[in-house]
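Input.
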Amino acid sequence: MKQTHSEGIQNWLKLIRADGVGPTLFHRLISHLGSVEDVLQASIQQLTRVEGIGDKTAQRIHATRDDFDVNAELAMAEKHGVWIIHCKDGRYPAPLRAIYDPPPVLYVKGTLARSDSLSVAIVGSRRCTTYGQEQASRFGHILASAGFTIVSGMARGIDTAAHHGALAAGGRTIAVQGCGLTRIFPPENEELFCRIATSGACISELPLAYEPLSENFPGRNRIIAGLSMAVLVVEASAKSGALLTARAALDSDRDVMAVPGKIDSPFSQGSHRLIKDGARLVDSIDDIMETLGPVGETLSEHAATHAEKAKRKNETPLFDPANFNLSPVEIAVYNSLDGQPRHVEEIVADTQLEPGKVNAALISLRLKGLIKQLPGNVFLK
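Output.
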């Protein structure tokens, strides 16, 4: 099904592309003046009444608000199969909308699903070890198999491995680009870009033809963190951009986890620093389970209040627990639990499923926080 642009996207593009307007100032303008259309029609004097806008900035905004060629941008989007949404659109990811400075507009190639509200970011250095690539792929595969969407930046190294792991599991993955979606970066990931777009989405806040400049990537990192419930740093050097993503995650009240490496490896210096500063050390899937395991419980309370607000605003709830996308086997295993502790052998007998499938489903349900494991292979809903 072909996706359409948000209604009124032309004016949103005009404003965000005006000289001097970034995400933070964009939202401040809307908050003060009322709507995108009101801002575009505002006088220089009205613009100067907005906090942080002096005469020069107001003049720049006023002079350049019609400079961006919106029609050419929309024609290019049509040509490349990209749809553009603004942050008032119900399809806009609810977790991303909740951060301090959400992108006013998002370019999307692929699909956004409600289940993407259950996302985990896996990030790390471009220059990495074989060990790092293996761990990124492994965790990407396990989490995607459990129904989580894997978010990363499609950069060389750890990001690429995480995307591949999710795709190998047949799961969803989202790549956030630090350039326009017609400038695939790195270029050798063109095939990966296409695969991600068919089983998830490639997204960017930047104009379609925007080049991959270094100053774009801090903004890209905040989107990765904002889309995700938690960020897993697999391998990061002391100056890795993955550390910026981790900081952005903390700023947005997301959990941060890190995989340790060799104590003398420069490729893991940043990861070890995160652990010293309080990030959850992850050396097995059980550690991720303990971090994400309460998802079902904590989100059910959070979503109860947020869902009512979202309903009134016609929005998707933030991190909606209804989006777990359980497989038929998971549903059968979950339904076999009736509130009383049950041994795994009882579950196998009750469901008449293969033990291997039951164990895989139990792991997945634990990851999603829907069941608890008690001592002796006993499980409780």
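The first strand starts at residue 83 and ends at 86.
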